[in-house]
Write a structure and sequence with these properties.
Structural class of chain A: mainly beta
Distance between the termini of chain B: 38 Å
Order of helices and strands of chain B: EEEEEEEEEEE
Oligomer: heterodimer
Helix content of chain A: under 10%
Largest interface: A-B, 25 and 27 residues
Shape of chain B: globular
Radius of gyration of chain B: 13 Å
Helix content of chain B: under 10%
Radius of gyration of chain A: 13 Å
Number of helices of chain A: 0
Number of helices of chain B: 0
Structural class of chain B: mainly beta
């Protein structure tokens, strides 16, 4: 596709369950970012991929959060034993080209996660 | 500790007038700044950016001004249009490394016809 896509668009889960969120970045882009936006807050950086490796995981809030990327394309963000404070919109972004942020990051529509 | 601050949560202006959105930052290592616009149920859309080597960047109706000594930037929209109504996010980064974006909390702009 032409843009960044994410699935599911909405996810409602019960506290304690595991969830997987998927991101399909722009085809051929080597860099990929995950952010989240909690209610009333700005976007928070979670993790950055360059190819299949993640040189910056500094934004992951706890060890319940993990992410992987395969084939320099699809990325999956996994949250184990979800808590109510995990409720947020999770956004994926990839740069337009091979350069990083100076080449602007294009965002997907996000996955709205609600933990009951 | 908020490194990027948008202190006004909302702004309302009349169509045709100027909209001025402000942003302050605390981290002197930031050297690249961006503005994003966000509509409900959509991801943020890139609007305009500025490097710290410049103090102004213009793109059509949108101009971003950077005052490094004050650690302040602003986005001017002239003339404002009803379609500009959205939430605007200021973001900053340091070039090199992961270049992760640090965002402000956003400001809701309403342009009234």
């Amino acid at each position: 596709g032409a843009g960044v896509s994410q699935s599911p668009s909405n996810k409602v889960t019960e506290k304690g369950k595991d969830v997987e969120l998927r991101c399909d970045p722009i085809s051929g882009h080597t860099a990929l970012y995950w952010y989240r936006q909690r209610l009333g807050q700005g976007l928070e950086f979670l993790i950055y991929f360059q190819g299949n490796s993640a040189p910056d995981k500094s934004g992951l809030p706890s060890d319940r959060f993990s992410a992987e990327r395969t084939g320099e394309s699809v990325s999956t963000l996994t949250i184990q034993r979800t808590q109510q404070e995990d409720s947020a919109v999770y956004l994926c972004a990839s740069p337009k080209g091979l350069a990083l942020s100076t080449d602007t990051q294009y965002f997907g529509p996000g996955t709205r996660l609600t933990v009951l | 500790d908020q490194q990027v601050k948008q202190n006004s949560p909302s702004l309302s202006v009349q169509e045709g007038r100027i909209s001025i959105l402000n942003c302050d930052y605390t981290n002197s290592m930031f050297d690249y700044f961006l503005w994003y616009k966000k509509y409900p149920a959509e991801g943020p859309t890139f609007l305009i950016s500025i490097s710290s080597i410049k103090d102004k960047n213009e793109d059509g109706r949108f101009t971003v001004f950077l005052n490094k000594s004050a650690k302040h930037l602003s986005l001017h929209i002239v003339p404002s249009q009803p379609g500009d109504s959205a939430v605007y996010f200021c973001a900053a980064t340091t070039q090199g490394g992961s270049e992760k974006l640090v965002f402000g909390k956003g400001m809701k702009l309403t342009v009234n016809p």
